[in-house]
Design brief:
Helix content is about 70%, strand content about 10%. By secondary structure, it is an alpha+beta fold.
């Protein structure tokens, strides 16, 4: 008894290990998705841009050396007054901005901050898209397992009745053609099950492919737990947030246009050896300092044209945003209608299924006594298969709708 209990425990543990639910495939897909690595790298690049901006405000130190020789011969050659006969220098130069308008830095940091928020939102949008695609494929594969289940039940029912019908045919209660018709129905049901098994293998392989998994071992797919999510207003979803971030990005880029038109001041200097080598070159060690200021006075009206371009981008964004708001409301209304219609259809099919089950039981009893036609019994089983298939389709449609709702109703 202890050995049997241990064997049953190991068998149960093996079945549980093979069962993989929707969360398992979602975790696998999110861990392996290259899009997240790309977004992480983009976020790292954005942080580097922020550091580069800070580094540009620090002293810029350069070192350089140059040598030049301009010989003359019998009066031929460069004018010594211009070339000095040549020169040599070895200098270390320093350039330090001392006045950069605070608004310049504020605008640049704001642009980087908005870009970082957009990357974060893109990561969430990517996650939602992965969840939707994995969920849709999981539901499709799960639906096929449900079809397999009730078709196998129907086959078992037919095989049980086959024993009775074969004996009654041997007793000449039923004709040989009736039994052959029944036997052909069994073979047809076996073919249907085999087709569904092949279909499930393909759908399961696709689920593994989308999840980045290579294990092809057949597993049990439990029913996905999809509940009706709270229906958010469009403004509270991450999809609308993207339009808001796009607006901030356009505004930040518009402010960056004005940066070159603001004055800047910097100091510079160098130290080292700089000589024409004409006389006492060893004394030409020294330094120099200076100050420079820049302000762009006119650039052919490029500033106004660039601001016009950003205004057009904002106008385009508003068009897409308004279209999204309209679509969102229509999609929510349509979803409610679809769910209500499926509920009504389920109620009708359940009523039909109860009648069909009673008919199958009655025909099954009459079949054993030879008081019903085989065709009537097979027709009742066919009606049951159609009803259960319709219920499965309704369930899958409902789950797909809920999956889409979870995708659309992600909070910002």
């Amino acid at each position: 008894m202890r050995f049997l209990a241990l064997l049953l425990f190991c068998f149960s543990a093996s079945l549980q290990a093979q069962e993989r639910n929707l969360d398992f495939y979602l975790r696998a897909a999110l861990e392996k998705a290259p899009a997240f690595r790309d977004l992480r790298n983009q976020a790292a690049l954005n942080r580097q841009d922020s550091l580069l901006l800070r580094a540009s405000l620090r002293p810029q130190v350069t070192a350089g050396s140059a040598a030049n020789f301009a010989p003359t011969y019998k009066g031929f050659g460069y004018d010594p007054a211009l070339s000095n006969g040549g020169f040599f220098n070895a200098l270390v130069s320093v350039n330090q901005p001392v006045f950069v308008p605070k608004q310049n830095l504020a605008d640049q940091y704001q642009a980087l901050a908005v870009q970082n928020q957009s990357l974060q939102n893109n990561a969430r949008l990517t996650e939602q898209d992965i969840r939707r695609s994995i969920g849709a494929q999981y539901i499709t594969a799960y639906g096929t397992t449900q079809q397999l289940a009730f078709n196998r039940e129907a086959l078992e029912l037919l095989r049980r009745e086959d024993v009775v019908l074969k004996r009654l045919t041997e007793q000449n209660i039923y004709r040989q053609t009736d039994y052959l018709t029944f036997l052909a129905t069994i073979h047809q049901q076996e073919t249907t099950i085999r087709k569904l098994e092949i279909q499930y293998q393909d759908e399961f392989a696709t689920l593994n492919y989308l999840s980045g998994l290579t294990d092809t071992t057949a597993v049990t797919l439990p029913a996905p737990d999809f509940q009706l999510p709270p229906l958010l207003t469009a403004e509270n979803t991450i999809f609308y947030r993207q339009y808001a971030l796009d607006s901030l990005q356009i505004r930040a880029n518009d402010q960056l246009i004005d940066i070159p038109y603001r004055p800047t001041v910097s100091v510079f200097g160098d130290a080292g050896f700089n000589s024409s080598l004409q006389s006492q070159g060893w004394k030409n060690i020294g330094f120099s300092v200076g100050i420079g200021a820049t302000i762009l006075l006119y650039d052919g009206d490029q500033s106004r044209l660039r601001h016009q371009k950003t205004a057009l981008l904002e106008n385009t964004r508003l068009g897409y945003r308004d279209f999204f708001l309209q679509q969102y409301q229509q999609e929510i209304a349509q979803t409610r209608q679809q769910l209500a219609a499926l509920d009504q259809l389920d109620a009708s099919v359940y009523t039909q299924l109860e009648t069909v089950r009673a008919l199958i039981e009655a025909n099954g009893r009459l079949l054993r006594t030879g008081d019903t036609r085989v065709v009537d019994y097979l027709m009742a089983i066919g009606n049951q298969l159609n009803a259960r298939n319709q219920l499965t389709l309704n369930q899958i449609n409902r789950l797909q709708i809920l999956n889409q709702l979870h995708f659309r109703n992600a909070p910002n």
